[in-house]
Each structure stands twice: as structure tokens, then as C-alpha cells.
Amino acid sequence: MTQKTLITPAENSTTITQMDTSRSSRLYTESLMFKKDNVSLSAMTFLYQEMISYLHQSSTTMAEFEKKLSNYGESIGLRLLELLNFRASLSPKSFIDSSSSATTTTATTTTTSNITTTSATTGTGTAKIISENRTRSKSTTSKLANDTRTSSNSALRDHNTHHHHHHHTLEREKNLDVSLCKYITKMRRRDLKILDILQFIHGTLWSYLFNHVSDDLVKSSERANEYMIIDNSPVLTQFIPNNNNASLSCNYFVCGIIKGFLLSAGFPCSVNPHTMSTDEFDERLVYLIQFDQEVLEREALRA
Amino acid sequence: MPQYFAIIGTQDNPIYEAEFTNPTSKNASSNEGGFPNDLKELNPFILHAALDVIEDLQWQPNPTVNNANGGGGIGIGYFNSNTSSNSSLNSTGFLKSRTSLGGNNSASDNCYLGKVDHFYGLSITAYLTYNGMKFVMIHGDASKSNTNEKDITFNYNEEINSKTSNGNRNKAMVPLDDNAIRSFYQEVHELYIKALMNPFYNLNDPINDSSFDMRVRRLAKKYIT
Amino acid sequence: MAIQSLLIVNKSGGLIYHRNFTGTGSHEQQKQPLNSNDYLILASTLHGVFAIASQLTPKALQLSQTQIDYTIPYIPNLGTSSGAANATSSGGRGSNIGKLGSFKGDDFFKDSFTSWNKSGLRQLCTDQFTMFIYQTMSGLKFIAISSTVMPQRQDLNPDRNKNINPNNLAIQVADNFLRKVYCLYSDYVMKDPFYSMEMPIKSDLFEKKVNAMIDNIS
């Protein structure tokens, strides 16, 4: 159903063809897929150090410094909320299916109603299939296993990978539809409960940021609106000495990430760092999350 | 059928809007396949009127139950959302049967809210992103868009007169392809995330990027018009 | 090799770090350590001597410099707790023991390296102590004072032509050790946002790590 409308030159296709491809950024063509890129800890901490010393110099009070650092984190947190939830929606099953069914390099000729095209399929495992932006390496293309979707998506796939085809309107669109939606069977549910979203932070967000889940997630027994995320050895501030009274405040960046994450998900709160040394971990850090009263009220309504 | 799509920010501020017209109509008339002119300017109002409903559904555990109605009885769908917020016990039992009817289990995603509202002949669907952006769309009536304006205004007047009659509405409503709309929303969602990844873009800023616009329109063409 | 003192001198001759490690060493040559002013003078004097020494390099040596091998071999697990003991003590991630900051693996480096100290002092032998100097690319000097007295060990092995010349070995050990202190410096001093360049090092983390390394050596 969609193929025809896709190729038919319609009134809006003028805007497509007139688009200045050289000027447009790669913002929309980059895949949102997770890439296993490790950032050098050294580079990261140098950057972090510069960030902190810049903020520290530009702030007159400690509270101002903490606020500014937290704001840096917040804008990251609200982006991560969207990105990580979206990535969590990708069902790993569809990748596995596609890798198992994708056979060794076969050149298949897919004939659809309008386009004839060759798609070389390499079954080199999930990694290749996942990395959609690798479609620039022309020989590797991802084959969709989901048979029900194959027909409707084949047009999409074709101009992902091929450029010398008879449809001039499509030529300019090559590589533009690096969308992951075809792998999504069901979007991840929005987190509506405090515990759900804290679990997501404890697991997914922490894994994304620090490559491991956070060391603990604790609910305060004294106050209903307080929760604690515990990190035994904070990565970003590990080189910052404790003998400075400003050193604890350097953790406000991660606090900001948590805060921005929760805030944009509809859980207004404040997040503060506290050191809680143990025998084993003397840099053990507790991120204390204090939810606003309205969050608890809403939670009570839904319970 | 014509569609009016908008992204509404967390402060109920408009972020992006677009009108998708039927690409198959090749008539010289500029308005052909689109919304009638007098309705066009009402679109933002209609859409914003639906925001209350969306806000109510936002914290519902199972907001999608409404789209079990699909393109059929809109009125029921709308009232469901109200009742379920008031008396959860009553509505869950009732809605469960609905969900099984519509093929949505309660564990399905709560991003796509399905049809949330209607305005006479128009139905309004909505989608919520994880940070509370509201994707809202007014689905015009394909059968009406081809007739001339007089007819349309007449039809709307007729609707006003008989607003309680469900049967009448069923006739007027366009059946919606939930899966296509859901796919469209998801694709736009992905685009939106990409726009959000731009470090120079702040939350709730309007998106004026022509590249974004172009992509949304292409998606609309692919999925819904 | 017992390290008695560790000094770090910045590129303009200022003493930015100084610690005495007494008690663990077998010989306690200096019962009364110098006062802090003496150390400042010592540092700047050393800096001056170092600069002079670099001018004093004989012409013949300068000409034949290409032939001199400045490569220092890597001595494994010097100052870092070795693998087996480490693996049991730190049960996977989390434990700070054996974690080397931004350095991966169980040791700071695994390769032989070339000494940057090509024209200045590298070693100073007295009958009381031996001093080793490791200079970085930027002119920062790490100085270790060892209680080991070199001539004694030379007597044990008078064959000076061989590669196992104890003098050379001592330099290699000292360079390996000081290079690791340099690694610590690059992590815990350079990445401290509140440290200003060329100023005395006050980081307690750096202190702790250096102490741990000294403990591991002796």
C-alpha cells in the first residue's frame, strides 16, 4: 500500500528533490542504534575537569556552581530519557530472527510492483544487521526476516542500499531512511510509577553511562519521597580529591542527569549527592532523590 | 484524507505542525484534498481541545484501550477515557473486554493513545513520547474532502443538530488504520529523538528544520495519506 | 630497593610534592629529615645542577648519541599488586584495590619505553643514598631517593660490561617506578579540577596511591 505513494511523484516531492543534500546535516540520517563506542576515560575526565574548573571560576557561590553543573546534566538526562527508552523498544528478537534467516551471501532479485533491485544479503550475524548506518558500505545490507513486513519495507530497504536505480526521486533519498522503527514491534511503555522509572535508571541509564548497573537502589525508610541510587566508585569524579570542600559538589553533574531524566518523564524531584564511605569503598556515593509531593499524590491516585 | 499533525510541547506549546493533503488528487484547486478553508483555521483549536484528554490519559495505566473502537464509535471511545479515570474498577472490567476485542493486551505500549477525541466528523489521535511531547493528529474525512465546501459546512451543521446520535456519527467517521497511524507516530518519534539529539536544540523549542519537515511529510505520505 | 623520599619538581625548579617514606626501609640513614625549607632548596639546587649537567655532556657523547640506547625495559608489576593476589582481593568491578584509574589492565604500562632524560642527570650516587631522576617531556622531574648504596652492590657484581650491571638495573627499576608515579600524577593531579599547574600537590588521592605503590615495592 505504501510503496506506490512513496514513489509517485507528488506535490511534496518537489521539496524533496530541491533539498540541498550537501547542506543538510547528518542529524537525521544517523541511526539511533547503539554503537559500541568506548570513550576514553582519560579524555572524559579531562573534559570533565575543564568543565568543572570553568564553572567553578564562573560561579560566585557554591550553590550557583552546583546549579550550573546540574543544569549541564539535566539537558543530557532529558535526551537520554527519549533515546534509551526508544532503544529499549527495539526488540532483540527481531534482530535474532533476521540473523538466523539471513543466509550466506546471496544475491536475490526482489521484484516488487514498481522497483526491480538486487540486494546482497550477508549473514554475518547480528552486529552487522544492527549497524544500519553501515549501509554505506554498499555490499552489506540488512535483510528483514519479518516476512510480513518484508514486502512493505522492501522499498525502504532498496533505496537504503542502492543508488543507481531508475527512480530519480529515490536517488536523493538513498540512505536517508535509516529508521529503526521497522524493528520495533512495540514501544517500551512509558514509566508511570516511581519504582519503574527508578529501575530503569538503576539498570539501563547506568549501564549506558557507566557500563554497569548502579550498585544499589534503596528506598528511604524515614521519608516516603526519598530514594537512593548508590554508586560504589563514581567514575567521573574518581580523580577529584576528597580533601577539597568543593569535591562533593562535582557530583552534581550526574545528579543533573538523573534529575533531567526524571523531570522530563514527569517526576519532578531534586537530586543531591552524599558520600557514604564504607570500609571497602571509601568513595561510595549516594544520589539522594527527593520527589516532589505531587508525584506521590499522583502515585497514590493510581494505586 | 487530509490530516493535520502537530507536536505539542510539555508546556502545551506548539513545536511543529504540518498539514498533509491527499497526494493523489491532481486538481488545480489548491484546497483539493485538504481541509476546507473555514475548518483549517480551527484545526489548532480542535487539537488543543484534545490536550486535556491526552493529559488525563497520560497517567492512565492502559490508555490505549480506547482505540479498540478503531474507526467505529468514537463517542464511546471518548467517554471511556472519562469513566476510566473516575472509577477504575468499573472501567477495567469493561475495558478488558474491549481490549480483547481490539486485540490490544493491557501490556501493550502506552505511547500510542489511539483515538482520544473527536470533533464532529473529525477524529483525533494522539501519541506521547517519553518526555511528554504530544503528537496529535486530526484526521479529516476523505469522503467529505472531495465534495465542495458548501456541502461540508452543511454536514457540520447537521452534525451539530444531531450530536447525540451515535449511528449518525458512525456514518460520518472515517475508519482509521491504527497500525499505520501508530507506525507513522513511531517514525516521527524517532525523527524527534534525532532532532533532540542536536545539542543546540532545547526541549520545547519549535522545530523549524526543513529537513525534519521533509521527512515527516514523506512519512505521512508513506503511512497515512 | 627501599624508597626513602619522593620529590616532584616542576619545570621551573619549584618543589611541588615531597614525601618521606621512613620506617619501612631497612636502612634509616637519615634520622633527622630536612625541614621543608631545606627540601625547597634541595629541589631548586637539583634543578640547577640538572640544567648544568645537560650542558656538560661531553661532545663525544653528544656526537655518538644516536648509538646510545635510552630504551628502558619494562619491569612487570613494580609497585602494582600482581595479578593473582589482585584478582582475589577485588571481586570483579567495584573494588578500588588494583584499579588503576584511567589505565587499563593490571599494570600502568606493558612496554619498554624510551627515557626522555637524555642529557641531564639520571643517577646520583653517594655513600649514604642513591638518587634517581626521571624527567618528563615537559620538564617535570620525579626524584626518588633510595637508601640503597650503589657501590656496595657494585662490589657484589664487579663485571661492569654485562647488561646486568646493577647500576643499570637500579636505573631501570627506578625509571619504571618513577614512570608509574608519573602515571599516577597524570590521573590524580592533572585530572583534579581544583589543581592549578605548577602549584604544590595537595590531592589526598594522589597521596594514597603513591603510598600504596611504595608499600608494594618495599
UniProtKB/TrEMBL annotation, chain A:
<dbReference type="GO" id="GO:0005085">
    <property type="term" value="F:guanyl-nucleotide exchange factor activity"/>
</dbReference>
<feature type="compositionally biased region" description="Low complexity">
    <location>
        <begin position="98"/>
        <end position="127"/>
    </location>
</feature>
<keyword id="KW-0256">Endoplasmic reticulum</keyword>
<dbReference type="GO" id="GO:1990071">
    <property type="term" value="C:TRAPPII protein complex"/>
</dbReference>
<dbReference type="Pfam" id="PF04051">
    <property type="entry name" value="TRAPP"/>
</dbReference>
<feature type="compositionally biased region" description="Polar residues">
    <location>
        <begin position="138"/>
        <end position="155"/>
    </location>
</feature>
<comment type="similarity">
    <text>Belongs to the TRAPP small subunits family. BET3 subfamily.</text>
</comment>
<keyword id="KW-0333">Golgi apparatus</keyword>
<keyword id="KW-0813">Transport</keyword>
<dbReference type="InterPro" id="IPR024096">
    <property type="entry name" value="NO_sig/Golgi_transp_ligand-bd"/>
</dbReference>
<dbReference type="GO" id="GO:0006888">
    <property type="term" value="P:endoplasmic reticulum to Golgi vesicle-mediated transport"/>
</dbReference>
<keyword id="KW-0931">ER-Golgi transport</keyword>
<dbReference type="InterPro" id="IPR007194">
    <property type="entry name" value="TRAPP_component"/>
</dbReference>
<dbReference type="GO" id="GO:0005783">
    <property type="term" value="C:endoplasmic reticulum"/>
</dbReference>
<dbReference type="GO" id="GO:1990070">
    <property type="term" value="C:TRAPPI protein complex"/>
</dbReference>
UniProtKB/TrEMBL annotation, chain B:
<dbReference type="GO" id="GO:1990070">
    <property type="term" value="C:TRAPPI protein complex"/>
</dbReference>
<dbReference type="GO" id="GO:1990071">
    <property type="term" value="C:TRAPPII protein complex"/>
</dbReference>
<dbReference type="GO" id="GO:0065003">
    <property type="term" value="P:protein-containing complex assembly"/>
</dbReference>
<dbReference type="GO" id="GO:0006888">
    <property type="term" value="P:endoplasmic reticulum to Golgi vesicle-mediated transport"/>
</dbReference>
<dbReference type="InterPro" id="IPR006722">
    <property type="entry name" value="Sedlin"/>
</dbReference>
<dbReference type="GO" id="GO:1990072">
    <property type="term" value="C:TRAPPIII protein complex"/>
</dbReference>
<dbReference type="Pfam" id="PF04628">
    <property type="entry name" value="Sedlin_N"/>
</dbReference>
<dbReference type="InterPro" id="IPR011012">
    <property type="entry name" value="Longin-like_dom_sf"/>
</dbReference>
<protein>
    <recommendedName>
        <fullName>Trafficking protein particle complex subunit</fullName>
    </recommendedName>
</protein>
From TrEMBL, chain C:
<keyword id="KW-0931">ER-Golgi transport</keyword>
<dbReference type="GO" id="GO:1990071">
    <property type="term" value="C:TRAPPII protein complex"/>
</dbReference>
<dbReference type="GO" id="GO:0051276">
    <property type="term" value="P:chromosome organization"/>
</dbReference>
<comment type="similarity">
    <text>Belongs to the TRAPP small subunits family. TRAPPC4 subfamily.</text>
</comment>
<dbReference type="Pfam" id="PF04099">
    <property type="entry name" value="Sybindin"/>
</dbReference>
<dbReference type="GO" id="GO:0006888">
    <property type="term" value="P:endoplasmic reticulum to Golgi vesicle-mediated transport"/>
</dbReference>
<dbReference type="GO" id="GO:1990070">
    <property type="term" value="C:TRAPPI protein complex"/>
</dbReference>
<dbReference type="InterPro" id="IPR011012">
    <property type="entry name" value="Longin-like_dom_sf"/>
</dbReference>
<dbReference type="GO" id="GO:0005783">
    <property type="term" value="C:endoplasmic reticulum"/>
</dbReference>
<protein>
    <recommendedName>
        <fullName>Trafficking protein particle complex subunit</fullName>
    </recommendedName>
</protein>
<dbReference type="GO" id="GO:0005085">
    <property type="term" value="F:guanyl-nucleotide exchange factor activity"/>
</dbReference>
<dbReference type="InterPro" id="IPR007233">
    <property type="entry name" value="TRAPPC"/>
</dbReference>
<dbReference type="GO" id="GO:1990072">
    <property type="term" value="C:TRAPPIII protein complex"/>
</dbReference>
<keyword id="KW-0256">Endoplasmic reticulum</keyword>
<keyword id="KW-0333">Golgi apparatus</keyword>
